[in-house]
Amino acid sequence: MTRVVHGQLLGTGQRFGVVVSRFNNLISEKLLAGAVDCLERHGVASDDITVAWVPGAFEIPTAAHHLAASGRFDAVICLGTLIRGATPHFDHISAAVTRQIADLAVSSGVPVLYGVLTTDTLEQALERAGSKAGNKGVEAAAAALEMVSLVRELKRGSQK
Ligand code: INI
């Protein structure tokens, strides 16, 4: 018979590290509020959420690495806001940050979630931070809950 494995969205007893960057804080604080609200509404205790602020998106992978390596968290959620400017700066930072978070998600053994906005305009970022295009912080937190549960289930399966 086919064995189908799903993650659940129950966060009771789970611990989360959240990295959030201060650059474009107007947006990032909305991503953070959405992520924390989502975790708490799914049963995560506020004491079980650690928030690490970093200066800009470029610093997110460093902090995420330390949170993941600490062994204290079931998942690490990365939040930030990159908005395109007049130079290629945005492209370099967004490519590096995205690649490093993806690498960490696979190599650390801990689910690492990507809630970093990369938009052309401030308006697009606002739309993704709690208005008409949802809130990417909420989405990243929901994905974190699901991945914690899924990874636990997959580890259990591999021990059978
Ligand atoms: N950091 C961001 O988080 N978003 C941006 O849009 C941004 N832009 O456009 O420059 C940005 N730059 C700062 C960068 O992330 C580092 O903090 C800085 O280079 C120091 O390492």
What does it look like?
Helix content is 48%, strand content 21%. By secondary structure, the chain is of the alpha/beta class. The protein has a single domain, classed as Rossmann fold (3-Layer(aba) Sandwich), CATH 3.40.50. The strands form two sheets. The protein has a four-stranded parallel sheet with strand order 2-1-3-4, sandwiched between helices. Strands 5-6 form a two-stranded antiparallel ribbon. 5-nitro-6-ribityl-amino-2,4(1H,3H)-pyrimidinedione binds next to strand 3 and helix 3.
Q: TL;DR of this structure?
A:
With 160 residues, this protein is α/β, with parallel strands linked by helices.
Characteristic terms for this protein:
single chain; 160 residues; alpha/beta; Rossmann fold; four-stranded parallel β-sheet; two-stranded antiparallel ribbon; 5 helices; 48% helix; globular; binds 5-nitro-6-ribityl-amino-2,4(1H,3H)-pyrimidinedione
N to C succession of SSEs? EHEHEHEHEEH
Instruction: List the uncertain runs.
Output: none
**Helical proportion?**
40-55%
- Helical stretch count? 5
Number of E-state strands: 6
Percent strand: 15-25%
CATH fold assignment? Rossmann fold
Considering the protein shown, what is the CATH homologous superfamily?
Lumazine/riboflavin synthase
Report Rg: 16 Å
Quick check: average pLDDT? 96
